[in-house]
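Lab notebook, bench 4. We co-purified these components, and the gel suggests they stay together. Before we commit to crystallization screens, I want a quick structural picture of the whole thing.
Request: model the full complex, all chains together.
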Amino acid sequence: MLTPMRSARFWIVLAILFAANLLITQFLTSAGQPPTVTISYNAFLDQVDANNVVSVTSTAEAINGLTKAPVADQSSGIKSTKFQTQRPAFATDDLETLLRQHNVVMNAKDPNAATPLWVTLLLSFGPAILLVLGFLYLSRRAASAGAGGILGSFGQSRARLYNAERPAVTFDDVAGIDEVKADLQEVVDFLREPQKYQRLGGTMPKGVLLIGAPGTGKTLLARAVAGEAKVPFFSIAASEFVEAIVGVGASRVRDLFAKAKAAAPSIIFIDELDAIGRSRSAVVRIGGNDEQEQTLNQILTEMDGFDSREGVIVLAATNRADVLDPALLRPGRFDRRVTVQAPDRRGRAAILRIHTRNVPLAPDVDLDQVAGQTPGMVGADLRSLVNEAALGAARKGESAVTTADFADAVERTLLGAERKIILSDLDRERIAYHESGHALLGLLVPGADPVKKVTIVPRGMALGVTLQSPVDDRFNYGEDYLRARMVGALGGRAAERLIYGVVTTGAENDLQQVTRIAHEMVVRWGMSPKVGPLNFSDGDGGMLQQRPYSEATAQLIDDEMRRIAEECQVQAEKLLEEHRPQLDALAKALLRNDSLDEQEILKVTGIKQPPAEPIAAPVLTR
Ligand code: ADP
Ligand code: ZN
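Here is the predicted assembly.
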């Protein structure tokens, strides 16, 4: 994701103009104007006697004049041919005679006489004129490139930064998404030998949309396509246009396409396409979206305006294809869509291998095993995981990264960094019971993810954390599992209520999770018999803009969500009551040790390891 800087050139020219102004002003005011020095009256008379004084002028007792050789100021010692002095009121000398004797011109031109009119004018207006001329020059240049006006000069000068890049990355640097690489290989082949494709009458897609969660490697893939094909890569992030000045986005898009065509075969990469490409009908526009609209239209115009035979292929990335304006997906635009999935275990291992190419690993490190501990992580996460592990090793002064370093890094990445805050004993106990509630239910409810760790050391945003980690990836959730998650999430609150009779604000995040799961069960996955096998979701956990159901159904959805959540709460409270001794033991152990790992938890509670059923991404309840 690139963020082009504001055109350095524009600012440099502006800075030079300002500097020139300053210098000129300085020069004009000081040119030929020696400073005026103050001398004593005695010194003045001496200078007259020495025939050094050329001319004098006088107002009342103040005398100003010019000398041949410079005279020194009485206090600062600065020398100048321009002086001033004060004739004492009590002086009785005949100054006029004296001056006559020494041929001093009297009442000549006042050395401080007003500067000529043209100099004054130049001084006051010159800098301004220079600035205006400079600005005109800048915007003229922009206008000639089709941007128009002063505003255009910004668009243009920023667009000028979209210079071609020639990425050195190739498909070897991308792992875990082999299907996607295969899909894109065709694009690479075309860019390498456009003629060959055209001869056979094949047409290439103009636009390929890469769809996938953040960090799955969409940008990396686009760069790798350019790297494989050895063609220039032009990139732009659509979000840059969102707050841009009107007209700038469109002019930048124009410039970008012109550049790419001139450099064809080439690739244009538009990141975060959804930032401007959101469906125009679905989004309520609250003013100020003209810029997005104009930018989007310009992209569409440009894509319609060229032929893929020109050898320019537009790749775009988005997290969500479902919100995109359908106009973008029409034939001749982004008609090819490639989904970039989060990597599976094998993929994660391959990505880890890529990112550890230059990291010395201790012989005990098994990257396949690390991959197994990191379900749900995408390429970007894995890269920072390797980085964390390497930093940890460096901190400890090790010469290679060990398995322990990776374990620490996984924990830090999943749980967030530890935080130092002082808690009262009562708060600590409360948190210990809360987390014990989560952990115990994680062990007791069949189908829940194995509890890997529980801690009451504040980490990240949380005061305590229970980490439940699946055995491996899973892409499908059963209703039992979802209910187990909800029971576990409600466990913290249930424990607090069991022990203290009241609940605290600490369960906010737990309730968010419960609400989300209950909502999706009802409106997305058809898990409420009353609502029926219907899907009212927009596919991303949200509700549709316009409800395709009646008020009565809305009421039913609310009721069903509440029913499911309450059933889970009852189950959570019942289980904890039945296992009160284990809850106490766990809380006590936590207060003693701050953190417990899987084995310790099993030992303290005396629970046999539940049959491990493979399940999805790691679950954190706070
Ligand atoms: P996206 O554009 O999908 O948000 P990026 O391409 O910016 O993701 O990924 C960020 C970084 O994560 C990449 O530069 C790369 O180092 C790493 N990465 C992501 N996916 C992969 C992958 N499949 N293989 C190797 N590295 C990856
Ligand atoms: Zn909690």
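Confidence is low (pLDDT under 50) at residues 1-6, 143-160, 282-287. Worth comparing against the SEC data before the next meeting. Residues 276 and 296 are 6 Å apart (CA to CA).
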